[in-house]
Structure formats: structure tokens, C-alpha cells
Amino acid sequence: MKRIFCIALVLTGIIWTLACETAPSGNSGNSANSNSNANSNANAAKPVASAPTKDSLMEMDKKASEAWMKGDTAFFQNFLGDKFVMYEGGKKMNKAEMVKMVGETKCSVKTFSMDDSQMHMIDADNYAVVYKAVFDGECGGQKIPSPTRAVSLYTRDGDKWAGVFHGETMIIDPKNPPKNTPPPPPPAASKEEAAKPAPDPNADAIIALEKAGWEAWKARDAKKLEEITSKNLAFVGLYGDYTGTQADTIKMWTGGECKINSTNVADTHVTMLSPTVALMNFKGSADGTCDGQKIAPLYGTNVYVKDGANWKLSFGFETPAA
Fold it and tell me: Yes or no: is domain 49-170 CATH 3.10.450.50?
């Protein structure tokens, strides 16, 4: 969780397991029944988690917040999915790194609240929950940034829902944003990250689509943006603002007075949550101004879904890179 990083910053696939039973040998009289039972067991899948509700996802996030305050690594070991990923301060973190961070973080929280919640269905096996988080407390002697717009992504993992992403961005007045400061240099890549991954046509297509989206934003091309996004698009913007429909999101993207010379999408990481759902982390920037203010660099996490032969953006999340 982003709150875990406040010391330094001032501050989903499905696992199906089939139960198989080997037919007993040496009893020809019962072989037909044994084979029938074996086939029946082989076709019986483990229980599958039912579709979540907004309240059930919020309850999971509340428990996660309480476990974070206690430094409960055992909770997060079970709560997070194996494909969990975060992209904080330019660093990609996996499940093991997140659990380790939880155990090392010492925080004191007096009160907290989680309100104004919204649930977003990405597909039948992946959901996002968005809410306003308010914390009164400290981490490492520094005040926890608050209020924030928080996002958690859950994926169906057999008979439970597992967390595969969490991010938060400060809710601030876009007319009076904090003074921009140069973003910190990216940390050295781990051995895992440094190894050049094998070419992935899905990842290549998603990265190309992300870049096309930035160019469409630059050109204020609402038609193109509609073409490359899903009908149930939702978005959390740089200042903690939330839009829950495709129309409202595109209207926000194409509104305002902007003069953009160029755009850049870098430091891309694509995680395939399933063959048809992908999570992309990246750093985005643009040379130009919007409403008279210089455009600040950002870290983004976008969820793409396969729609027929094409990928489309279904959910987007941004937080300042500075």
C-alpha cells in the first residue's frame, strides 16, 4: 500500500485444481463403478468464489489496512495473489517485496476512514474498488499523507478473491497543486528486472496502445479515445479525481486548455493476470501545459482487457511521479 512508503515518500490468474481419484486395481467387478467415480471426481473443480459486492471488497480492504497497521505479514501472505504488483516511486514491487515491507514498516495510526466507495467490474474474474481514505497517524515520525483516493484490484483465485494491485494518490485541488519538484532517480533494477524478457506480442500490443492513447489525448481526439477504451471505462486521475463512465472519462481527458508538444511513455511493465486481462505499469510524461500549468510526470497503472482480437483500456490509475 502506498501508505507503507510514507517513510521515504512522506508518506490478478485463476488457479483451478482438479481432484483426481485413481481407480482401484484388482477388482474387475467394480471397475465400471470405479472408473465412473474417478471420472466424476476428475471433472469436479474446487469451489469457486462467488461474484463480490462493493461491501465485501471494502471489508477486505479494511482488514488489509488494519493488518498493515499491525505489521501483520501473515495476513498479506494469504491476502495477496502471486501476481501482485505495485509501481511506487518508479520501482516495481512483487508480493514477496510487499510482504517484507509490511513487516519492516512501523506506523502509529489514531483514526482512519474509508468512504465514497465505488466498485468497477473489469470482467467476471477481476474487479476494482475505489474509495477515499483518510488517515490520522505517522510512519517513521512523518505524517501519513491524507486524504487519498485509493484503488485496489482483486482477481478470483479459486475459492477466494486475491489482491493483485493497490495504489493511492493524494486528493488535491487541481487549481492549486503542490509545487513540482524533480522526480527521484529510478532505483537500480533488480536482477529479475534486468534480465531481458522474452518478446510477448500481448505486451507489445498493450504498450503500443498506451502510447496511441497518449497521442490521442495530445490531439484531443475523443473518437480515437473511445475506440481504444472499453464501454465500462473508469479512471482515477492525477489529483485524486474519479470518473466512473467512458463518456465522463473521455470528456475529462479532452477538456481544458492544453498545448502539448510531445508525449512519452517509458519504464513499461506488463503483467498478464489472465489471457484476456493485463495490468500495465509505466511512467508517463508530456512536454506542454494544461490550463496554464506545466504538465507533471506521473506513474500510471492501467488495466487492459481483450475485446475480440483487440485490447482496450478498462481502468486507469495515476499518481504524481514527483
Answer: yes
